[in-house]
Structure formats: C-alpha cells, structure tokens
Amino acid sequence: MSSSKNPSRSTGSRGRSADQKAAPKKAAARKRVDKADRPGRICPACGGVQPGAEGRAKSSKPTGLRIRQAGRAATARPAPAAAAKRADSAAAPVEPTAPPAPAEAPAPAPARVPVDAPTLIKGIVERVPAALSEAAAGDATPPSALTAAVRKAVLDEFRTRAAFTGRVAEMDALLWTQPDHGGPAVRASMADHLKALGIRRLDTPDQAEAFVVTEGTGEAFELLRPAYVDELTGKVILAGQLRRIAPDAAQHTTGEDA
Could you tell me the end-to-end alpha-carbon distance of the chain, in angstroms, rounded to an integer? Predict the structure, then answer.
C-alpha cells in the first residue's frame, strides 16, 4: 500500500494531526519550574523576595497560604496596648491594699435645753424697749404695761402648748393599751407626731418621778401606761402607771425599782 493512500502515516508537516502539533506546548507548560527560578519566593537564607528567572516581581495579590499565615500571626500576637499593660502589671510590685476605713457613726443630735416661761418673759422684756427705740415709735410704752403684755402672751402660748401636747399624749397612751398598739401604721404615725412636737415617750421606769405606782406588791414592775415628757420644758405631760409584781410571777417586767 502506498504512502499516498494513507496520509496519516506521513512524516511531513502536512500530514501531522492537531493533537501532535499541540503536544510540545502542553509539555512545555507542564514543565516544573525550579524553586530558585520562581518569582516572589522568599529566600530561606536572606529572607528577601527573589525576582525569579524572568526577573519579574510576584503579583501583589496574596495567596491562600499567605492569608492563612497572616491570620494565625494576628491571632497569636497580642495587641500592643494589652501586652504593655500586662508587662507593666508584671513588673510593678503588688502593693497590699489598705482595709477600708470603718464608717463613722452619725453624731447624736444635741439634747434640747428645757425652757420656762419666766426666762422667756425676762429676755423678751429686756429686748423690746431697745427694738422700739430703734423703730422710732411715737409714745414709749410704760415698762409695767410692756411686762404685763409680754407675760400674758408667753403664758397663753405655754398653756396652749400644754393643752395640745396633753391631748396627743392621752391619744397615744390609749392606743398603746390596745392590742398590737393600734397596728404598725398607727404606731409609725404617732411616733412621727410625738417627735415633731418634742414629746418623749417613756416605756421603762428609769425616771421614777414620771410614773405612779397604782397597786400590787413586789420588787418588779409591770408597765400599765407609758409616761410622756415635754422636751421643750422638761415637764411631765402625762404620768405613767406601774404595778408592783413579784419577780418570779412577772411575765413582762420593765425593770427594777430605782
């Protein structure tokens, strides 16, 4: 059989197929490039970037390996501020903290000094003439008339206060004798009223002059009614009541005989 009848076996360029023509290009593309000739490779000796065999720099686009390496480095490396803070705290000596200072107890309220009507009348009478002279009043009031007017006004005020505080003390004493002393709301309200008016309730026989012993025998006392003292004047508004009982028979003793 002649070669002209079988052109595929011809060794000429005309008889070569397309696959045979592309084979050298594919082989050249599959040729492995040496590491030293690759562009952008990090030199293990100097740490620099190698230009490669063709002398061109590697593309600036990071590869997947570089992205993963950068992520691991950022995770492992602490922030500068946090690292400096930890270094300072580790270098500085730990000073013992002083215990907190105890809270100071509030200062007790100053005790009221009792006053009486003669003292008030005397002080007012001594100051009124000077006040009238400074005000350039017309006819000066005689001292006797001025003293009588001041005495009457002060005594009326003391009588009004005594009557009002006596009523309040009687109401509180009546509520005190009731079961549960009238309930929590009533007790709190009466305590506020007594404090605002300057009335002190005595439920222990510490001041014997403020109580009256009504009946019974023995050395212990049972409280029947509390006593009430006016802190403004120091006088007893309403006397309390006590009953003597035997110490062994007392269920609620309020103290020993003073």
Answer: 155
Percent helix, strand, coil in the chain, to 5, is 45, 15, 40
What's CA 95's distance to the chain center, in Å? 27
> What's residue 128's pLDDT?
76
- Measured CA to CA, the distance from residue 104 to residue 84 in angstroms comes to 41
For the segment 169-190, what is each residue's pLDDT rounded down to a tens digit?
A: 999 999 988 888 778 888 889 9
Furthest C-alpha separation in the chain: 172
For residue 243, which amino acid is it?
R
* Amino acid occupying residue 32: R
Structure tokens at 149: 């007017």
Which of 50-84 are b and which e, b meaning 16 or more Cβ less than 10 Å from the residue's Cβ? bebeeeeeeeeeeeeeeeeeeeeeeeeeeeeeeee
Banded pLDDT at 258 (limits 50, 70, 90): very low
User: 187: which residues sit within 8 A by CB, 6+ positions away?
Assistant: 175, 181
